[in-house]
Every structure is written in C-alpha cells, then in structure tokens.
UniProtKB/TrEMBL annotation:
GO terms for cellular component: aspartate carbamoyltransferase complex. This is Uncharacterized protein. GO terms for molecular function: metal ion binding. It holds the Pfam family PyrI_C. It comes from marine sediment metagenome. One of its GO terms (biological process) is pyrimidine nucleotide biosynthetic process.
Length: 152
C-alpha cells in the first residue's frame, strides 16, 4: 500500500481563491458570503503556511466577490490574498486590508447607539488595530473587537 504524503486540492478553472485566511476562520467567511446557497467551493482548514504558520483557504468555483464583500472579508482576515482565476490562470491578485474607516459594513453592537434606532441606517467605524481587529464607532465611541460585531 502506498502512503500519501500530501492531499492536493484541485485547481479551479474559473472563480476566486481566498488564501492566507487566519486558521479556523474560513467558516466565518463561508457563512458571511452565503457560499452554501450559491456556489460550489473547496476549503482547506488549519493548513501549513510558510507565510503565516497555519492558514485556511477557500476556492469558489465560478464565483466572484464584490468590493463590499472584500471589505467584509478584510474584517475577518486582514492581509488575506484574493486571486481571480480564469482558464486555470491567476488574472488578478490582491492583498486585502481595511482602510482607516469602515462605513455601512458592520452593525454597532451597542444597542443604545443612535445607529440602531429607526430609521437610522448609517454606520461608521474607525479601525484601531488589525491584529487583533478592533474598531471604534464614530457615533457612540464604543470600542469593539472581532466577534463582538456583526455584518449588515
């Protein structure tokens, strides 16, 4: 019997690869992008990486992500790499980051914040740090870390 040393995830012909996701974080991105409902996808969890030690990755077959979705991914996986694939080749490769200000992507966890009052629908945060992710609401000045805020 031949012992396998590696398991290889096949290349995708067209779609998106999200690489260098912090280990054990791909499930947040899968849920956030509603991948179970939309696309065929492959994921690797807790894989070895020379760049970040351990990582996750997601390959989305025939999928794409909007700029808004890229910003959401950056909140979960700052520094992740997104590659657009066409005919098995990388046609675009970007490293995603969060800018200093985040508008209308996440909901303020402070129930007393004016942004949670009807009919107010605008949210605005300032990024304080990426690792760990910390953001500050411009309206109530509450400071929140990853896991405390939810996406709109």
């Amino acid at each position: 019997m031949v012992e396998e040393k590696e398991i290889i995830v096949r290349k995708i012909e067209n779609g998106i690869v999200i690489d260098h996701i912090p280990k054990m974080s791909s499930s947040k991105i899968i849920q956030m992008l509603h991948l179970y409902d939309k696309f065929e996808f492959y994921t690797g969890i807790n894989c070895n990486s020379g760049k970040i030690g351990k990582k996750d990755f997601i390959k989305i077959v025939n999928g794409d992500v909007s700029n808004e979705e890229l910003n959401k991914i950056a909140l979960v996986a700052p520094g992740a790499t997104v590659m657009r694939i066409k005919d098995f080749e990388i046609v675009e490769k970007i490293q995603i980051t969060i800018s200093g200000e985040i508008a209308n992507i996440v909901k303020c966890p402070n129930i007393g914040c004016i942004t949670n009052q009807e009919p107010y629908k605008i949210t605005h945060f300032i990024k304080l740090s990426e690792k760990p992710m910390k953001i500050k609401c411009k309206f109530c000045e509450g400071i929140f870390k990853e896991g405390e805020f939810e996406f709109l």
